[in-house]
UniProtKB/TrEMBL annotation:
SUPFAM superfamilies: NTF2-like. InterPro entries: NTF2-like_dom_sf (IPR032710). This is Nuclear transport factor 2 family protein. It comes from Lacibacter sediminis. It comes from the Bacteria.
Length: 178
């Protein structure tokens, strides 16, 4: 038993000895491993702790819903939606919609378009550590061509929440292109 303590002490001393001189920290190369500061001016009401533990299937569900919209595949799009979904639209309207009501509303909107082009620029998957909610945030450019020939284009930033493999919350932000 004495030999175990002796070996452990020698290993500890060897690890403690360091012949390198300390270099001053360079702001450009230093990575912070410190915990979130406790003196922040705000506390997050939902979450400030996130990881990327979101399934690839959830990411595929979200991205496929955009592809289905662009292709005019309303049945495919509706397959990604839960029985009800909270929608925060870019124009300020916000409501909880039954799937059937949302399908009617979106079908009218999509039927006014002859084509939709989506260029998916980026997405990020994130999961709130405490609530375990899967969120997929997407950034994309969309060009809508209406049946009357008008063209509308914008950059979008959407937040999609997926639970049980279905979209349950969708929030969108729009910046028109000139």
């Amino acid at each position: 038993m004495k030999h175990v303590f002796l070996v452990a002490a020698i290993i500890g001393l060897m690890l403690a000895c360091n012949n390198e001189t300390e270099k001053p920290a360079d702001a450009a190369t230093t990575t912070s491993t410190a915990a979130t500061p406790t003196d922040l001016p705000y506390t997050a009401s939902y979450s400030s702790e996130w990881d990327t533990n979101v399934s690839d299937a959830d990411v595929k569900t979200v991205l496929t819903s955009y592809k289905d919209w662009a292709d005019g595949n309303m049945d495919g799009l509706m397959a990604a939606i839960a029985d009800s979904i909270w929608v925060d639209r870019w124009d300020g309207h916000s409501a909880n919609y039954a799937k059937a009501d949302l399908q009617k509303m979106w079908a009218l909107s999509r039927d006014s378009l002859s084509s939709v082009q989506i260029e998916m620029e980026a997405w990020h998957k994130m999961r709130s550590v405490k609530q375990k909610d899967s969120i997929i945030v997407v950034w994309y450019k969309q060009i809508d061509t209406y049946k009357d020939g008008r063209i509308d284009s914008a950059r979008w930033h959407d937040i999609n929440m997926v639970k049980g493999g279905k979209l349950v919350w969708y929030s969108q932000y729009r910046r028109p292109l000139k």
